[in-house]
Amino acid sequence: MESVFENVLNIEWRQIVMWLIGGILIYLAVKKDMEPALLLPMGFGAILVNLPMSGAVTQIYDGVAETGVIDLLFNSGIANELFPLLLFIGIGAMIDFEPLLTNPKLMLFGAAAQFGIFFTLSMAALLGFDLKDAASIAIIGAADGPTSIFVANYLRSNYIGPIIVAAYSYMALVPIVQPPVIRLFTTKKERQIRMDYTGIKVSKRTKILFPVVVTIVTGIVSPRSVALIGFLMFGNLIRECGVLNSLSETAQKVLTNLITLLLGITVAARMTADAFLNVQTLMILGLGLAAFIFDTIGGVLFAKVLNLFSRKKVNPMIGAAGISAFPMSARVVHKMGLQEDNQNFLLMHAVGANVSGQIASVVAGGLILNFFG
After folding, report:
1. pLDDT by residue (tens digit) across 19-33?
2. Which residues contact 165 (CB under 8 A, 6 or more apart)?
3. What is d(CA 248, CA 235) in angstroms, rounded to the nearest whole number?
């Protein structure tokens, strides 16, 4: 009874704030259906690690360190980049690159929509973050949770918890963040531009060769990203080879769901009140939002510039789908196209740009590691 009373007395207001933050994440997952597989375990984990003298995280008792299970999971799955890499196998198995292969120039939109990463890197450095932390914060603009985890952990960022929370939260908020930005930088006439879909049939051989070739080329251009792109493309190769259908389904469902679940609760190891509640966290959340916004702007403006030299006009909204938030961004662009013109079907073009953003974000993460690793 005495120990219970001591625990109550040991509760700090900052821990209570973290309980509230955890509760908000659970609410968003359950009520708003925003990335529930990740935000729910993340929210519960935030509560778990902020209980007084929580045995879930490493504590010092009488001068002896007792390793908590959350820290154990963190060291086993995130500190060595295992969870993000395994998750990339599942993501790769989910992606169909056919829309991109039928129109390869969509790859340009994936590259253009990474502008927010490098803009945010400059902003974070100007705000006083050291270069490795600034680079880790900037990768939020990759709009790709596993890449954010991989880069932030590889660079030993001091802010890995807020970075991961920002990356996944803004991915879930894509349907809210992107539409007003797209409308601000496009005219109604531009949003009504129709794009024909060629429907060219991509051969099975091409689909099998694509992940192999991309891995080789990326490994030469950006060696530090070869682990990320390799696992992503390996997952896609399992999907496209046609002889491992059961493994493909396992990677898409069982593996992805299990790793996402473990990832969510493990991230909480870096969501203790001491590490999370500070001015830097608010700055990171703001910079993460800026990264997403400028990614969108970069993609849209690139499409508008391309239209100046192209006889066949591109709907500028396609550029916004070049971020890596797959498939949310493609759905947003398709929905906005139908709102402007109910016969304007942009889904396949948007998906092509979206999957190119998946590749481009990993390459961008590799370039960040090349510069600052």
Report:
1. 999 999 899 889 877
2. 42, 267, 271, 285
3. 7
CA distance 170 to 167: 6
Q: Is 64 helix (H, G, I), strand (E, B) or coil?
A: strand
pLDDT digits (tens, 9 = 90+) for 70-82: 888 888 888 788 8
Q: Which two tokens stand for residue 126?
A: 């100007």
Three-class secondary structure of residue 322 per DSSP = coil
Q: Are 290 and 116 in contact (CB under 8 A)?
A: yes
Q: Is the dihedral of CA 72, 74, 79, 81 positive or negative?
A: positive
What is the rounded CA–CA span in Å between residue 327 and residue 349? 12
Contact 233, 215 (CB under 8 A): yes
DSSP 8-class letter at 137: H
Write down the pLDDT at residue 166: 82
* DSSP at 239: H
Per the listing, tokens 């016969």 go with: 343
At 52 the three-state DSSP class reads coil
Peptide bond between residue 327 and the one before it cis (omega within 30 degrees of 0): yes
Question: How many other CB atoms are found less than 10 A from the CB of residue 20?
Answer: 12
For 301, the 3-state DSSP assignment is: helix
Q: Please give the helix or strand (H or E) that residue 66 lies within, else none.
A: strand 64-66
Q: At 2, is the pLDDT very low, low, confident or very high (cuts 50, 70, 90)? A: very low
pTM reported for the whole predicted model:
0.82
